[in-house]
Structure formats: structure tokens, C-alpha cells
């Protein structure tokens, strides 16, 4: 099966569509020392889109996310994030960009010695002055905002709990409540459910997708569990060996594509059992 790869020109699109674009990668490469882990990646993500990034282990998914949120700079090519060339961002401009990008990791999202309320209010950190942030640790500022966000993730009763008293799924919900308080323009979730069983994973992906669509926030999720694509994403981007292998709608994914994408991992992932359909 022939991999469908967009050219830089078609990805970048016209000046008009660029105005509604949150990320543009143009011929991006990333090397660590002599090892090139991303090669010639060109893609764009539109405002409000919900996109899943898939691919075998080591394909470069996390590296791509770190480039998009400007934690890493490209070795080649250019990334434009919310209108800024990340290769040239420094100081306040870099902090400003990071405020607009909310990140959810697979675990360790919460500060273990802070109560849930304080973890949720961490979402305000990019906007609050240092004195207000310190004061909030003694006397939570915006308690109503924390209560509301926790209500949205159905954890109102955990406001004063410690993270260690929560299950893995509940901790991810608290991290999502923190994202709601942060109100970023983009949410990047890097394998947010790989530590959870499939039922909890489904709940978390459904919650993220629902919140992103209600807030009009762009959502990018790096996913290993392909069963979770169903119904939540408008587009899938597949990476293989550091290259953009394929992109399209979830409904276009078929057995041949997955066999070619995952190679030896295909059987281990039980992909024959995966039933994919687009209900977005
Ligand atoms: N800081 C680094 N220094 C050196 N090599 C790195 C670094 N970060 C990532 N790599 C390498 O880059 C490649 C891609 O890693 P990355 O974590 O982006 O892949 P991935 O697709 O997210 O994999 P997984 O699904 O297993 O998490 C891997 O071979 C990894 O070892």
C-alpha cells in the first residue's frame, strides 16, 4: 500500500488558512547527536482540530510533541506555533507561548505534596504574579474556579485530597481540570492513558475530546491504544521511523495500513481485534 504523504506546500496551505493554523511544521528534522530521529516532517494543525498521532515505539511522536511546544528546537526546517517561529523564541515570548499550550503526560502530572485544589489552581500559574501564586498556596485563590473545573471532571469531592489518595484515572482527571483552569489554546496529551486500563482510557479520552470541543481548544493526542481513536478525532497522523508516513480520517485506516505502519509490533498490539470507524 502506498503511503500518502503531503508535500510541504499542500500542508502549509494558503495565507488565509495559515491564519487559522495553530501549528505548521515545514521540512522539520531533529537530531540528537549523530542520530536523526525526525526527518523532513511537514504538516499543519488547524485551530479547533482534534488530532491523534500514532506510530510504533521510537517513531518520534514524543519528539514531535516536544518540538511543537518549543521544549525542543528543530535541527532543520521550521516550526510555527501559534504564529511564532519556535527556533527564535526566547524569554517572555517563549513563556507566553507555553502559557497557551497545555500539556498532559502519561503520569506524574500532579505535584504529590500539594492538595488537589492547589494542583488544579496551578493552571493559573502562567497568569498570576509570584506573590499571588504564593498566597494561593496558603489561601487558595479562585476556589470557585477550582470547584467548577473539578465538577466538570466529576471529582468535586476530592478538592482537599492529596494526589496519593487518588487512583491513576482520578489523577488524570485532576490534571484535565488543571488544563481547564489554564484555558490553553492547544492541549497536547502525550500518551495520557498508557498507564490506564482500556475502560479508564476510554473515559479519559472521551473527557479530553469533549472538553476540547466545548472549549474550542485544539487537541493533539499521542496514542498507543488504537481502539480509542473511534469517535474522538477528526484526523490521524502516523509517524514511522521519524517520517510522516500517513495522515487521514480514522475511517480510512485499514489493516494493510496498520500492518505497514507497525511492522513487527502489529501482532503484539492485537491490531486485528481493533475495529475502527469514524463517528466524529
Ligand atoms: N533526548 C534524546 N536524546 C537522544 N535520543 C533521543 C532523545 N529523545 C528521544 N530520542 C530517541 O529518538 C527516538 C524517538 O523517540 P520518541 O520518544 O520521540 O519516540 P515515540 O514515538 O514517542 O516512542 P514511544 O511510543 O515508545 O514513546 C528514539 O529512538 C529515542 O531513543
TrEMBL record:
<dbReference type="GO" id="GO:0016887">
    <property type="term" value="F:ATP hydrolysis activity"/>
</dbReference>
<dbReference type="Pfam" id="PF00005">
    <property type="entry name" value="ABC_tran"/>
</dbReference>
<keyword id="KW-0813">Transport</keyword>
<dbReference type="InterPro" id="IPR027417">
    <property type="entry name" value="P-loop_NTPase"/>
</dbReference>
<keyword id="KW-0472">Membrane</keyword>
<dbReference type="InterPro" id="IPR003593">
    <property type="entry name" value="AAA+_ATPase"/>
</dbReference>
<dbReference type="InterPro" id="IPR003439">
    <property type="entry name" value="ABC_transporter-like_ATP-bd"/>
</dbReference>
<keyword id="KW-1278">Translocase</keyword>
<keyword id="KW-0067">ATP-binding</keyword>
<dbReference type="InterPro" id="IPR050086">
    <property type="entry name" value="MetN_ABC_transporter-like"/>
</dbReference>
<dbReference type="InterPro" id="IPR017871">
    <property type="entry name" value="ABC_transporter-like_CS"/>
</dbReference>
<keyword id="KW-1003">Cell membrane</keyword>
<keyword id="KW-0547">Nucleotide-binding</keyword>
<dbReference type="GO" id="GO:0005524">
    <property type="term" value="F:ATP binding"/>
</dbReference>
<feature type="domain" description="ABC transporter">
    <location>
        <begin position="23"/>
        <end position="266"/>
    </location>
</feature>
<protein>
    <submittedName>
        <fullName>ATP-binding cassette domain-containing protein</fullName>
    </submittedName>
</protein>
Amino acid at each position: 500500500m502506498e503511503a500518502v504523504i503531503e508535500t510541504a506546500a499542500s500542508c502549509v496551505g494558503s495565507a488565509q488558512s495559515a491564519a487559522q493554523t495553530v501549528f505548521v511544521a515545514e521540512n522539520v528534522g531533529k537530531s540528537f547527536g549523530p542520530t536523526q530521529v525526525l526527518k523532513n516532517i511537514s504538516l499543519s494543525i488547524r485551530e479547533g482540530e482534534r488530532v491523534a498521532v500514532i506510530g510504533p515505539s521510537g517513531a518520534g511522536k514524543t519528539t514531535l510533541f516536544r518540538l511543537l511546544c518549543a521544549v525542543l528546537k528543530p535541527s532543520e526546517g521550521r516550526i510555527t506555533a501559534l504564529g511564532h517561529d519556535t527556533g527564535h523564541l526566547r524569554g517572555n515570548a517563549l513563556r507566553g507561548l507555553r502559557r497557551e499550550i497545555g500539556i498532559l503526560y502519561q503520569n506524574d502530572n500532579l505535584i504529590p505534596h500539594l492538595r488537589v485544589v492547589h494542583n488544579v489552581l496551578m493552571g493559573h500559574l502562567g497568569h498570576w504574579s509570584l506573590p499571588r501564586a504564593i498566597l494561593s498556596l496558603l489561601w487558595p485563590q479562585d476556589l470557585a474556579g477550582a470547584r467548577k473545573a473539578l465538577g466538570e471532571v466529576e471529582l468535586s469531592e476530592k478538592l482537599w485530597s492529596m494526589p496519593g489518595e487518588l487512583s491513576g484515572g482520578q489523577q488524570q482527571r485532576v490534571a484535565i481540570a488543571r488544563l481547564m483552569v489554564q484555558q490553553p489554546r492547544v492541549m497536547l496529551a502525550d500518551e495520557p492513558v498508557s498507564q490506564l486500563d482500556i475502560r479508564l482510557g476510554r473515559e479519559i479520552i472521551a473527557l479530553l475530546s469533549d472538553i476540547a470541543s466545548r472549549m474550542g481548544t485544539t487537541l493533539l493526542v499521542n496514542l498507543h491504544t488504537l481502539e480509542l481513536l473511534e469517535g474522538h478525532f477528526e484526523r490521524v497522523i502516523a509517524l514511522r521511523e521519524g517520517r510522516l508516513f500517513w495522515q487521514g480520517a480514522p475511517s480510512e485506516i485499514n489493516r494493510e495500513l496498520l500492518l505497514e505502519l507497525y511492522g513487527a509490533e502489529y501482532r503484539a498490539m492485537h491490531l486485528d481485534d481493533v475495529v475502527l470507524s469514524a463517528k466524529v
